[in-house]
Design brief:
It is built from 9 helices and 8 strands. The chain has about 220 residues and is of the alpha/beta class. It has a single domain, classed as TIM Barrel. An 8-stranded parallel β-sheet has the order 7-6-5-4-3-2-1-8. Helix 5 links the parallel strand 4 and strand 5. Helix 3 packs parallel to helix 4 and helix 4 packs across helix 5. Bound molecules: pyridoxal-5'-phosphate. The site of pyridoxal-5'-phosphate has 13 residues, from strand 8 and helix 9.
Length: about 220
């Protein structure tokens, strides 16, 4: 077995039922994605639209592609053409634009709303209050070509695991609140994407259904 295959097997063996693995393949060449595919991996995550667009035609059709990095509005069209799921919707403006671009090409695209819970200012997303307010005031309604499937979040990059845990707990709480209020009638709203190589087991304890793991599968990235 390749290292990649054995890493995937090891991680999957530890994931509870109902938690899916997104193999974060950014900066890695296609041969390495193909090794993951051959080991049974079908969900891949990329954080740059151009890289996503160049990789999709090189991989089999049954791959599910998740865009997980900040999406600039001028790349929304390309993202809608290539992504299966856009996890990184970080503003209402982007949400509406993605809806419009999806309508333009006659598809419905799955999206997730990115929650900002980390302390780093560089990370983007809605604050919990902004998102709850937007949901309660109907600003997430009226979209025709996006299906909002859940929330995505990143914890602060810190060794302080109690802080990471607190942040994931906040995401879980916001998800549960939305699920019982604004999204009570939307069974599609079911996913919480959180947890990376160093913190995924904490994320899973707090209700993650999609862990996004790069380094622990593919090794270090070469930028
Ligand atoms: C790169 C990236 C990951 C994966 O990080 P690793 O530490 O390599 O597992 C997960 N989520 C997002 C949004 C990323 O950009």
């Amino acid at each position: 077995m390749s290292d990649i295959a054995s890493n995937i097997t090891t991680i999957k063996a530890q994931l509870p039922a109902g938690v899916r693995l997104v193999a974060v393949s950014k900066y890695h060449p296609i041969e390495r994605l193909q090794q993951a595919y051959d080991a049974g991996q079908r969900i891949f995550g990329e954080n740059r639209v151009q890289e996503l667009a160049s990789k999709t035609p090189q991989m089999p059709d049954d791959v599910e592609w998740h865009l997980i990095g900040h999406l600039q509005t001028n790349k929304a069209r390309l993202a809608v053409q290539h992504a299966t799921v856009i996890q990184s919707i970080d503003s209402l403006r982007l949400l509406r634009l993605v809806d419009k671009e999806a309508a333009r090409i006659g598809r419905t695209i799955q999206v997730m709303l990115q929650l900002h819970v980390a302390q780093e200012e560089t990370k983007s997303g809605f604050t919990p209050d902004e998102l709850l307010e937007a949901a309660n005031s109907g600003e997430l309604d009226g979209l025709t070509n996006v299906t909002i499937t859940g929330l995505m979040a990143m914890a602060t990059n810190t060794d302080d695991m109690t802080q990471v845990e607190r942040e994931f707990a906040t995401v879980q709480q916001v998800f549960e609140t939305l699920k019982s209020t604004a999204f009570a009638g939307s069974p599609a709203f079911a996913e919480v994407s959180m947890g990376m190589s160093d913190d995924w087991s904490i994320a899973v304890r707090h209700g993650s259904t999609l862990v996004r793991i790069g380094t622990a599968i593919f090794g270090p990235r070469e930028y």
